[in-house]
Automatic annotation (TrEMBL):
The chain crosses the membrane at residues 144-165, 177-196, 234-253, 265-284, 364-381, 393-414, 421-441, 453-471, 483-503, 509-529. Belongs to the major facilitator superfamily. Phosphate:H(+) symporter (TC 2.A.1.9) family. It holds the Pfam family MFS_1. This is Major facilitator superfamily (MFS) profile domain-containing protein. The lineage of its organism: Eukaryota, Viridiplantae, Streptophyta, Embryophyta, Tracheophyta. The keyword Iron-sulfur does not apply. The keyword Transferase does not apply.
Amino acid sequence: MVLDSQVANRSKRSQEQRRQLVSMADDDTPTAPLLTSHKAKPAEVPSIDDIIETCIGGTGAMQLLKAFLVVFARAFDGQLLFISVFTEAEPRWHCVVAGGDSSSCSRPAAAASPCALPPGTWAWDRPAGASVVSEWGLNCAGPALVSLPSSAFFAGCLAGGFLLTMLADSLLGRKKMLVAALASMSVAGALTALAPNVWAYAALRFASGFARSMVGTCALVLSTELVGKRWRNAVSFVAFSCFTLGFLSLPAVAYALREVSWRSVYFWTSLPCLLYAVLLYFLAQESPRWLLVRGRTQEAVETLRQIASRNGGGGGATAGSSSSLSMLQNACALAMYEDSGTRAGGVFVTLQAILERRWAIQRLAAIMAAGFGVGVVYFGMPLSVGSLGPDLYLSVAYNAASELPSAVLSWFVIARANRRGALAALAAAAGACSLACVAIPRGAEPARLAAELLSFSATSTAYNVILIYAIELFPTSLRNSALGLVRQAMVLGGVVAPVLVALGRERSFWSFGVFGLAIGCSGLFAACLPETRGRSLSDTMEEEERKQAAGSSAAVDKNSDDSHLV
């Protein structure tokens, strides 16, 4: 009885808040003529998203620059993600002629590895400290130990994603979580440069992955929540471009330090990241949407006033936005009653809110399954590209450069194409090109490299589309958590990828063949997801459910009209 009365009181308060919002919306709507040929539609309740759009009056140049500053974190994310391609590469070696006798070192007999040769009869082409493999003699240790550091890194990403992803939606928020992740990632990277052996190195790589797990998620979510609808696609495109920029800069840094040490590569990529984290702490803003769904309305209103002033509103909100701020407080009060389950409670309440709704579970399971297949290929391809060309730096640079057209294609797909069809088509294309790498003979290295580049480019586009798709599928109260779980499904694919790459050195089917099958099957899960193109972002679970009901009702009405026409 007590519980029923609480539910009833909450429902009454929610209805009262809704009536107030409708009344305020009616006040701002021009009066319709008394004599009309049809019945006027009742004013719709404005969502928090619509009210925020009115408050900020569009996105100005200064606010856009702040969003671009946030997404630049993706550049450091791209560097750390693929740094092991160089630091854990197996350098080339040559025979050493001692006293004119080279019979003890026969290169054709030991073409793959010098492990069977006597000591002193061979040497690395580069200094031993250029790679962890040559410094610690991992080339003869077997695939399990060789793949351990990379697998440990992705395992850290996986663990950090599950343990930290809820913090950005509950306690810390987007900005604090992003700054903390960047600072921790840079410190862990600098400490990795001091690792004395492979076991300490693998442990520090795990710590780097744990800290890095939230960088991409928070940067993408925070940047898209700081701008209006018109600029979200542009900000997403810049985010993908920044990641590509970080990936593309990595071969240049590694090439410049190729004769020094792999430790220098970690140090000179970690230091700029730490300086950027300090800069971001002082210049970035917290998401007003997150502040609103957490019930911190006054802070959100003050943030919106600051944004409005930078967008040409003078010293505060514009005249048009002053009434919107009042509507905003009523909308937030309504949202707090409707979605209070995701505001109060512990860190994992957001996950509980997903598990309580069948449609949310179905969406999350489908997008995570698709993300796993894409992650296997996206993280595995750069690790295996060394087997396709004689120059590791050029091969990786080609892969990084292939992400530039992928970023442009991602922007086009997000702006123009349906999400489901695009994801399925990209997965099928990537799978076909990856399987082509197995079918093409080993002697035709240029053809294999071209097929690999096409597969990686399509995979990169699919990776970007999945991230945007996940943002659109879930409301603000759960968005960061849902996107974090999707990214962890991709990272889980990254945990498997190094093992497949190690096995694929002997037989390419275990790398490129499995890659093609994995991503090809992942595109099938897009059929289980709703189309989100052109939809506004929801802020609460109830708002998302109302949109689903409205969409279903509109579909029924359309089918009814079609049947009458027939």
